[in-house]
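Let's do one together. I've listed all components of the complex below, 645 residues spread over two lines.
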Amino acid sequence: MDLVVLVAIQVLYAIASLALISVGLAIIFGMMRVINLAHGEFLMLGGYAAIVATSNGMSIWLAMLVVAPIVVGIIGVIVERTIIRFLYGRMIDTMLATWGLSLFLVGLTTAMFGNTTVGISAPLGSFQIGAYRTSVYTLFVIAVATGVLAGIYAVMRWTRLGLLARGTMQNANMAAALGVNPPRVYAITFGVGAALSGLAGAVLAPVSGVFPTIGVAYVAKSFITVIGGGAAILSGTASASVLFGTINQIATFATTPVFGEVALLAAAIVLIRLLPQGITGRFFRRGL
Amino acid sequence: MNDRALNVIGLALVGVVGAAFLILTPRFAELDAVLELTVFMIMAILALSLALVWGYGGILCFGQSAFFGLGAYTYAIAMFNIGESTGPLLLAIGLPAAFAALLGYFMFYGRISDVYLGVITLTVTLILFNSVNSTAGPEFHIGVARLGGFNGIPGIPPLNIPGNKAAPVDLEGMFYLATASLLATYFGLRWLLASRFGRIIVGIRENERRAELLGYDPRVYKLATFTVGGALAGFAGCLFANWGAFVSPTIFGLAQSAQIIIWVIVGGRGTLIGPIVGCIGIQWLTTALGANQPSGSDWMTNLMANAPFILGIILVAFVLLVPRGLVPTLGDIGHWLLRLRARPAAPSLKPKQAEEG
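Okay, and this is what the predicted structure of the assembly comes out as:
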């Protein structure tokens, strides 16, 4: 029984962390059709932002939940203005340019922070489930993921900004004719996506540590989740995270963490063969 | 001068320069330079494999290094088990080709779009990297060959003269073999692309729907192109395993994949000579950057000696400013100059036309 609860928490954690690392990418891809291969590096920058802020005496909660999203969000807006905006509609070229950006950021952070893992210890301690102990931080990550998804839903559904964003996503020309400024919406959207990636990177930094090439560990998983999810940002990310997170965690329990990841990636390839439009291409079509 | 004549001159030029390079280099260069040039030649074969798949087939494969690594590992493992190099060489070409065919079946018959294709090939590369990386224990072996995990496989025996185990290929022989293979690959691909098959795959790249309506099945042609590309990359991997007598999982890595893409985009998609030039240029640059790696100096100098940093800037700059690559752009400028000279009478009538032409 205790083991069942423990496994359930681990599965929920796997789902939550997948959703967290993917949601920024899902916003950028779902709304702007931009494949951002520097996504993993945005997560990495979020981790570094949190660690630098903490080591300068800032509270870890402030560093993770406020500083990291703001720093990476600003970087996102700069990237959108200097590189991405010249490449709208040229998907392949955006992929290549953002890949170049990712190499650039890896090189830059290696030169600045060195090629070693830095970490902050996870706060909150641990708690007891029968014979097992697990960390409270796991529950915190699950809470953050839930909060982020709920927040996006609320913004998209009930605010003016969400309305403009959805309108621009559906038909940019019509939105422009009605007085919306699409380039501005794009820049804000990209910034928000980057900020959420920064938040995710910072929240996961105490678990995984941060090093310049950590983006590689994230990028494939988050792409798989977004593409497996399909066009709808929220329901797609959520359903794909549930599917892949469960597969990953169960395979990890049965074998080793490495083969858990291999199982995740292999399952994703089969899924894309079966449902080329992603899960929301077939199910939950009307989702947000 | 028409295009056909230019074409023949170009082919002859490549042949003459290539042959001169092949014969003269070992006579005049030091052995370490020959060794370095050998790996450039091997990587140029790898660049050609992506030039075919992406530049002509229009298939953006982010995972060309998967086939490269698979070829290298296959050769290494088979070599330890068999001991005579003809079989391992054929396996190192055949297995990546078969793997490419299987993967291609999933992708092309699933009719997924270009972008997803890029992501899937990237994912497969990461799967291979992760799996091979975690096989460090002694329980992971194929026959007598240990996989070695992140330590890689050292001490791979070199190729030998077919049928004669006692006659291994030496370092200079390796240079001749790699250079001759590169030339053979280049001319082989020129022939392939001039054939009916080559015309069709370029047609599919230009407009897949139209090619399909004309009765060609794009899935079959794309699958064939992808498989040939996989075989070529596997062959390059086999030569690479020979060259260093060592393979490690990093050859599956993203950095390796990125390099191949950068070679092709810098040299130019839709040409064969471009990716070779791009490959050798970038390789030379990264070797030069790595060579003057400063120790303990300030971080600005560190940055300038940092290969990913420089490669990233090159990639972004080329996508934004020279999206067609060096060779096609230079070719355009050359054509433009030729046409300027070919029309000397025009300016006297309409002075502005010469500038526009």
